[in-house]
Sequence to fold (367 residues):
Amino acid sequence: MKRKRKTTMAKGTGFFSLFKKKGKAKTVSQVALHDAKDILDSSSGKPFGDVYKLGSKLGEGAFSIVKEGTHKQTRQSYAIKVVSKAQLSREDEVALKDEIDVLNLLDHEHIIRLFDVFEESSYYYLVTEKMGGGELFDRIVSKSFYNEKEARNTCKIIFHALAYCHSRGIAHRDLKPENLLLSSNTNNSEIKIADFGFAKKARTDACLYTQCGTPGYVAPEILEGVAYGTKVDDWSIGVITYILLGGYPPFIESNQRQLFKKIRRGDFKFHDEYWGEVSEEAKELISALLTVNPRKRLTSAEALNNSWITCSDEGLAGKDLGTNLSKLKTYNAKRKLKHAVLTLIATNKMTSLGVHFRTNLAENSTR
Fold:
């Protein structure tokens, strides 16, 4: 039976008080997003350090660091996002609140869960489930054998999670391999969508305007600077599906200006060397997702009814993707290196589309 979420408010810790209107007394509170029987002391009002013990670093962002954390009472292990207040602008604080609001709305087996939020004098602490299996793409390239059935099953899981997000009016806005994680080292199906730092509530199909995301995965309408909605994610998952099957991205250019130009035109191909043996249904699905006009673009919910997703395992299991797996290993290694470099030079979240994003976009204003 599905567990109900419980939200409790307590003195001494918390996040939402930061956003009270000026002139009103600040009520400090903590939000718990977990079942009461999974005790996390959310209603005790204790400081973070009395509840959790921080361990080794798991990752790092522009103004935050992710560390392993252990609940002192239950000994349960979590991932703790430690955000420095000193490095946050007012805009960053609002974005952090949006991220927490979004995660509070989501409860799905393939979406990372937020359990606790603490606010203290110098830091915010976001307590999430620990993803011990690493990145999905790293797991795939470690395989010695890879077939179309495995790729299809992976896509199906991601479509389900994304359709759930969109059914609740949430646009992720930064779907990419780095944000597809695995819970464990042993189960390949425990995939979860992570990092909702750019996520936003999208009440209509054209209500968001922020130009954010990651080059190569970003939808054309974001580059065009027009209002958009959740369908930007459907484009991004189309890119990911292409990579999972072909082993390389649909839009490749070393020059970001040319990359954006290709994306805005939807200029990609299925090269025979890597796609000659791939199911036609899979290629049709990708084409329907990588449709420039969002009104004509397939949604993740509709993709679940696609014949490639619903067909039997037997036929797909016989389609070997060994050549494409080798290509994916090369792409993944380059992606990891590039990601490490970008992490080092990142100064704030809005550099995600590139330091020279505005210049590159402006110089390709004509199609």
Observations:
- The two ends are 52 Å apart (CA to CA).
- The longest helix spans residues 322-345.
